[in-house]
TrEMBL record, chain A:
Entry GO terms, CC: periplasmic space
UniProt keyword annotations, A-Z: 2Fe-2S, Iron, Iron-sulfur, Metal-binding, Oxidoreductase, Periplasm, Signal
Cross-referenced NCBIfam families: PRK11433.1
GO molecular function: 2 iron, 2 sulfur cluster binding; carboxylate reductase activity; metal ion binding
Species in which this protein is naturally found: Jiella avicenniae
Role, per record: Oxidizes aldehydes to the corresponding carboxylic acids with a preference for aromatic aldehydes. It might play a role in the detoxification of aldehydes to avoid cell damage.
The UniProt record lists the keyword Signal: yes
Annotated protein name in UniProt: Aldehyde oxidoreductase iron-sulfur-binding subunit PaoA
Name of the gene this protein is made from: paoA
EC class name: oxidoreductase
TrEMBL record, chain B:
Protein name from the UniProt record: Xanthine dehydrogenase family protein subunit M
Protein origin, superkingdom: Bacteria
Claim: Transmembrane helix is one of the keywords in the record: no
Keywords tagged on the record: FAD, Flavoprotein
Native organism: Jiella avicenniae
GO molecular function: FAD binding; oxidoreductase activity
TrEMBL record, chain C:
GO molecular-function term, one example from the UniProt record: oxidoreductase activity
SMART domains noted in UniProt: Ald_Xan_dh_C
Organism: Jiella avicenniae
InterPro entries hit by this protein: Ald_Oxase/Xan_DH_a/b (IPR000674), Ald_Oxase/Xan_DH_a/b_sf (IPR036856), Ald_Oxase/xanthine_DH-like (IPR016208), AldOxase/xan_DH_MoCoBD1 (IPR008274), AldOxase/xan_DH_MoCoBD2 (IPR046867), AldOxase/xan_DH_Mopterin-bd_sf (IPR037165), PaoC-like (IPR049648)
Highest taxon listed in the record's lineage: Bacteria
Domain Aldehyde oxidase/xanthine dehydrogenase a/b hammerhead residue range list: 32-139
Protein name as catalogued: Xanthine dehydrogenase family protein molybdopterin-binding subunit
Amino acid sequence: MKREHNGGITRRDLMIVGAATAATYAFPKVAYGQANVEAPASGEALKALDASLKSEVSFTVNGTARDIAVDNRTTLLDALRETLQLTGTKKGCDHGQCGACTVSVNGRRINSCLTLAVMHQDDEITSIEGLGTPDDLHPMQAAFIEHDGYQCGYCTPGQICSAKATLEEIRAGIPSHVTADITGPIEASDDEIRERMSGNICRCGAYSNILAAIKDVKGQNA
Amino acid sequence: MRAFSYERASSPQAAAQAAMARDNAKFIAGGTNLLDLMKLEIETPTHLVDVNGLGLDTIEETDAGGLRIGALVSNTALAADERVRRDYGVLTRAIVAGASGQLRNKATTGGNLLQRTRCPYFYDTNMPCNKRAPGTGCSAIEGFSRSLAAIGGSDFCIATYPGDMAVAMRVLDAEIETVDPDGETRTIPIADFHKLPGETPEVENELRPGELITAVTLPASVGGRHFYHKVRDRSSYAFALVSVAAIVNEDGTGRVALGGIAPKPWRDETAEAEMPNGASAVMRRLLADAKPTEENQFKVPLAERTLAAVLSEAKG
Amino acid sequence: MEFNNPAENNVFDRAKVIGQPLRRIDGPLKVSGTAPYAYERHDAVPGQAYGYPVGSAIAKGRITNIDTSAAEAAPGVLGIVTTLEHDPIENLWDYDPVRHFGGDEILHYHQAVAVVVAETFEQARAAANLLDITYERDESANFDLSKTPQASGDSDADPVQNVGDFESAFASAAVKLDQTYTTPAESHSMMEPHATIAAWDGDKVTLWTSNQMIEWGRQSIAKAFDIAPDNVRLDSPYLGGGFGAKLFVRSDAVMAGLAARKVGRPVKVTLPRPMVFNNTTHRGETIQHIRIGADENGKITAIGHHNATNALTAVGGENATLPIVAFYAGANRHIVNAPAKMHLPNSNAMRAPGETAGLMAFEIAMDEMAEKLGMDPVEFRIANDTQVDPGNPDVPFSDRHFVECLERGAETFGWSNRNTAPGATRDGAWMIGHGVAGAYRPAPVQKSGARVVLEPDGTLRVESDMTDIGTGSYTVMAQTAAEVMGLTIDDVSIDLGDSNYPVSAGSGGQWGAASATAGVYAACVALREQIAERLAVAEGDLTFEDGAVRHGDTSTPLSQIGKGEEIAAEDSIEFGDFRSKEALVSTFGAHFVEVAVHAHTGEIRIRRMLAVCDSGRILNPLTARSQVIGAMTMGVGGAIMEEMAVDHRHGFFVNHDLAGYEVPVHLDIPSQEVIFLETTDPYSTPLKAKGVGELGLCGVAAAIANGVYNATGVRVRDYPVTLDKIIGQLPAV
Ligand SMILES: Cc1cc2nc3c(=O)[nH]c(=O)nc-3n(C[C@H](O)[C@H](O)[C@H](O)COP(=O)(O)OP(=O)(O)OC[C@H]3O[C@@H](n4cnc5c(N)ncnc54)[C@H](O)[C@@H]3O)c2cc1C
Ligand code: SF4
């Protein structure tokens, strides 16, 4: 957006997190290769600003209140993995293309790589660590073991978070791409589960076993 | 990702003002497209205005018998809304055909409309791309263009608009409501919202600096049977090669818009009049000006055959 | 221990623990997110800084300058390592003679050219984008395999097999096929991108990394940093998949090591996903010219196969000829592998390297031949089974049940009910088809060692540098130890992936499980010998059962043997050359699929899949089945969606992320069935086991392509089989 300065706006209109002093600072352009023309500007100037481009944020993770100071750029995923060192949530692509970073925020599953930590003030976050521990497994975790619903294990925490959400979403009557009648009730058919799990890639290809695990848990709940 | 300052806006107009007040500011809604692009420094805002807390997340009935969908309504909530499922099935079907459950939980109505192309050269900052870096040239026209536009492109850019929701909104004659930093509101018909690339592929829509989408309105239901057929190689979690949004009436008349084939949802009301005469009659007009590349010429017969599939399902 | 003769009846034949479908012992850690992967080892060493890599913007040429000033001045930056400040670090391992870093020359797109280290990930990433790199592009390179001389069969490559007189046999054959098939470049796309944390202590370096072959990696790192191998430690207890992408050290490890040395702090580096595709390795493209001649009865008389493939270095490419030399009978054979040097990233092993692309093509050719002959494709394959090496009929297969795979599969699948007429079966809007293909993959083994420790409480600890890339190594190795020592699996604990432990086979070439379990066996036998010594009886007279060792009427609990001390034993299994001289040891299978093709749109969906595998003793049917269904899933990808598209002007893989490079998702995968034939192969290992993880991928894509043909009557010879390749020939609507 190209804009002139628009008068009349006072600081009180805005709830500012992080500094707003960045106002008109000209940030450097990248020189990536042939395509980019502008040369990088001074890193010194950036350095001067950087400290002010951080925020404090408070949320709960797996029931525990957390107050952290983060770089505004920090994704929720990196806040979990790097800042809080809760590494159960995985980074597979960092671009929303694999689902390994799936966590639940306020009861809904999201890709934690495509959201900023600073945007989660007061939110309730549940990651795989919040579902169960090796000694006290959530039924979905136990079912994944029982049905060998994994191989390398890297996509597994995301799969399990999604699996749990999948059953909840079906129960809540949220339609999916394979729902035949979107005005009627929704059955937890194999294809309903497969479609809803399709945002979680498993390159080892454990899909059939994951389906079996989810159906097992669905059966336990029924 | 460049460093940026961040603020939460307190009202729609304040958000518009905040965006206007700074050089190189952007709204952030779900963040699922913006952050993806920021990580690659395809988008480089230095200030983000978070519009999530503005109360724009409700769906209300309008006096005209339609729906007013807040710009921050999530894709999941919109697709699951009882009224949408009942009266605007094409919209539910289009939304759930897109992305994944996780992404739809975050993706918002406004952000989804504004999602940028998935052209692979646009995504690679080492490559010339007129949309990302105006004047550098288009890598796709003579490159890997299988997923790109077969119609509506220009010598400057053949990127497709990748979204699904907007294609359904196009057949529904949705309108986009906005507010600007001065508090002025306006309504933009979806037909006019997305722009063809012409010589300025970097300009993708009608929005002016600082202008915030507040809602999308749908006119009263037009009835008919609603279809959204999205064709892709992978059966889910993939963008459309071609998609057909259609409303088919008992008498064979109806509406149709195409996704995945053009820089914007592709609809032509005169072509639509041919619907009773079948898919090829419609496509002869709708795609009359198609200029596909060798790699994406299949989209032309594919669009016709996909509409034929929809029409035969409508009959069946 | 030397394995110099075929195995006889032994402890594994009691199969109390081995062969049981036991749940993975690493399962609870994996499902709870507590299994630590490389980039997550916060506890490993304090003070870790973040390194963010930069890949070359051009495919071929030179870097003339790197201006680091802006990046250096950026917040949080601790240091920058550029390629210009190092001599080339290359040829770290014979099978992977590539350049990882160093020098001004650019050999392929996204070659690592710098790493920027900062206090935080965000700072490092932002500063990496501030590097100003000046390139001089070499415009002369060709990136189009079809334009190489090799593609038109015009190469000076020696045949890998030249038996009889192919040309005249083919010329005089009653029925002939002469076709060209192509397979695209494919990406491993394991879920965990390459990642390493490196920390120096003087001239010793430790790398917490994600690597399939720890010892190869240790040697490679020593070479990279010019230090003694003993000064290198690699630790890789969990890998988020590999499929061959992590067989060798990659640039993440090299950059982490260089950067850690430069900034004097531990540094962690992971390759951003969009960089993985062009920086690392892939399955090469192939153009395969296949000629098959047969007599009227369907006996193959001549096989000609010419494979052209892209390779940046002398070792590379997808050698599609690998399975063709031995799979089917045929007296006259001329088979050539012709890699073409191209400045794409180097291609190297990806799951079932060679077999995958080879059978993608050849098993379509077999389908086409069967049709020409008017034979059922199952029957045609059976008719051309061979029990001896067709290139050297004096050497028999050690144990080959390919025919049984086909017959069991056909029966289970209901093959005889299929409609043989192409394009003639409908289910509503969908055209239905059935396809079959054969699977073949050798069963190599590698020397493999382990250390076992009998704890004072009678439990056993196993240590090895073996890796578990999802294959189930932890579990099958523990099962092996339990079986040999007469314990339950709960009595066995196991530590893997650390170069401080004995050198194992590592994970690759589907040799991992077969070799590593044999290595555990060797170590356990050494332990049993020590126990026998302590009891002053001959090892052969002892029976290990139920946590005790029995000799005649006396039974001693294992917990009492060490008298409060642990007893450790270490050994390796070494495989004698009888294994390759006296026999061909291979694995076999058959795949059956049902596909549906939308009659209007050409969308292709798989409806059901069956695999029948003959791969010796199955060590754990649960994890082995997972290997096979996973391979079948990867086969679906190869069949109908996976392709790294090459930009022939810029010389790179364009769709270099997981949205552009599509791999199968849940909804793509229908119900899958796997049958393991109950076979054992005494020539293979003491456990009579062979690999299965790669076999499962062989032939899958061709079965699907053949199914698409049966459904539509459209024969696609260029993978992936996508709708744009069939839509023009589908029935009018
Ligand atoms: C792997 C992947 C697969 C996907 N597949 C599909 C698919 O198949 N079909 C499909 O349709 N989509 C798909 N998407 C795209 C996804 O739907 C969009 O990313 C999402 O809808 C964007 O919404 P958002 O709220 O997250 O937008 P944001 O990322 O927050 O914003 C996007 C843009 O809109 C601007 N903006 C946001 N809100 C407003 C507002 N109220 N007023 C003015 N400007 C605003 C922002 O400044 C930004 O420029 C996919 C995405 C990913 C990552
Ligand atoms: S098609 Fe458009 S987005 Fe793609 S490279 Fe060309 S200009 Fe860029």
